[in-house]
């Protein structure tokens, strides 16, 4: 089993990776008076039986990251008798992790939780670092809290039951790590070929360890997203805007990030911050997974509205982590007028 520490001031949160990682659950659970699993219907059916604690089961999908679901979960936590000495286990993908973590953060002013991520996206990104949130109709993750898990238990074997779409979603975040800091991840992806989809637990283990190591170092250095951690937002400004403008129905999160990475590279090129060769390299990295098609009825006005409500904005300026080269990002703040001048061209490069 691989152990990667995330060091957070007084607190340390380990990431444990290996086929026997879940066996550590009982040891952690002993610390609490009650433990409840929060999962969704699909994950509960597949893996709920392996974890013998009472369950709170939510509906699968991004729509569960809402006030209504959070309230329902919290009512069930009360009904199950959770106290301030209790803990929650988040068993599932990014949606379950964000929702369960958020409920743990606000229940009785905060109780501990354990992340047991079951998707590639959650195993390499969302389960690590303590960002918890729900969405508002106005935008993604607009309500949330930083609340660090006690431990993150990653069993890559469970990736075997993921759909191709879910794997592609996680691979979008892998490409983000490659563009941000680790271009060698692209060689591992190329070498994996179709095996990534037929035997993901075998071909992605090395990638999971590498991405978790990068994320652990970044979160340890900048838990509160004030500096270095912003790098992890590469591709996310346009990605989140596309998700919001399409009511979370047209793209998975990773697909939106993948498209966002390519679009933000084009923006960087148009602003004179990235040369043509580096642009081609980043677009090529995104195409390795296959870029999603932006719906033809996408409303640019709605993308603009979503950009204006992005939680990373400062005053009236929109924050982008733009690539200056492969492995080198810089925060650039742009007014909406500046963004508007380039928006159509970066979203539809063949058309404009
Ligand atoms: N997913 C971005 C972050 O954790 O900062």
Can you describe what's shown?
This protein has helices at 25-29, 41-47, 67-79, 94-106, 120-126, 164-180, 184-192, 195-198, 200-203, 205-221, 236-245, 253-270, 276-289, 300-308, 336-347, and strands spanning 2-8, 11-17, 35-40, 55-58, 87-92, 113-117, 131-136, 139-146, 151-154, 318-325, 328-334. The radius of gyration is 20 Å and the shape is globular. The strands form 4 sheets. The chain has a 4-stranded parallel β-sheet, sandwiched between helices. The longest helix is centred in the last third of the chain and has 18 residues, at 253-270. α11 crosses α12. The chain starts with a strand and ends in a 5-residue tail after the last helix. It has 352 residues and is α/β, with parallel strands linked by helices. Helix content is 45%, strand content 19%. It contains 15 helices and 11 strands. The mean pLDDT is 95. The structure holds glycine (GLY). Residues 125, 129, 131, 225, 229, 232 line the site of glycine (GLY).
Low-confidence stretches: none
Shape: globular
Task: Summarize model confidence as the mean pLDDT.
Answer: 95
Ligand identities: glycine
Span of the ends, CA to CA: 50 Å
Strand content: 15-25%
